[in-house]
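Predict fold of VOC family protein; 291 aa.
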Amino acid sequence: MSLVKRLAYVEIEASDLDRWTVFGRDVFGCELAAGSTADSLQFRIDARPWRIQVSRGARDDLKTIGLEVAGRDGLREVCARLEKAGHPFRMATKEQCEARGVYEMCLLVDPSGIEVEVSYGSLLQPQRPFCAAVGHGGFVTGEQGLGHLMLVVDDPLRVQQFYGDVMGFITSDYVSTKNYGGLAGDFIFMRCNPRHHTLAFGSLPIPRRLGHLMLQVSRIDDVGLTLDRVHAHGFRQTRSIGRHVNDNMFSFYCESPSRLQFECGWGGLEMEDDSDVKLFDVTSMWGHKHL
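Predicted 3D structure, encoded as tokens:
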């Protein structure tokens, strides 16, 4: 059983917040949260105050990953494992915790250079039901967290070891393909809850840390409706509708205002703790053509 329980939130640094408002609210159906400002957008998809923060900046890339443990003991165990591994970290201030909407957290940088925050006691606001900006059946979150991330890293095996040994993630499977959009690609998929994977790692010749962020919708029709809104609002679809071979996700991909890939998916596989590790030589059973 994984020490980390789920992906709680992400922060993206972006240069065009006006287009991000359209992309998050009007295309993907996220609620623009009350905490949004002129320099920081917060998108809500469930009872949390927010799940995706987009802060003004020149990076146009992933800035921070927020991971969640069950409670104080879990956070203490993460800190003990970090100390044992000789990996630096520090505890967050009260003000930093309040800004993230958590009770306590530690801050670190993972082996690939990505800022990671590990917390417990996330604020819930069930008195404020999620209200999508467009007709929407909602997102699959809860124990499965925000969704999943595919991260572009220099040394996938080293990153896998860190998230396995320190954070307790479990390897779900590997994909080694000779044709990922015309490139050879090797990918590692790791889980921390029933979602097939919360983190995936690969080494690709792209200048960004975030390969893609996946949000899973509750209704299959919301995949198609989201795709319609991608085109209606002038965003670019980057991969056709298809079904992935490992997590069975029915999905498509599109490009955000920061040129980061977002996947809108439905029907993802849920795993057992003792599921066998598998190897695949393609990423999809059908579809997902690079456009």
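The radius of gyration is 18 Å.
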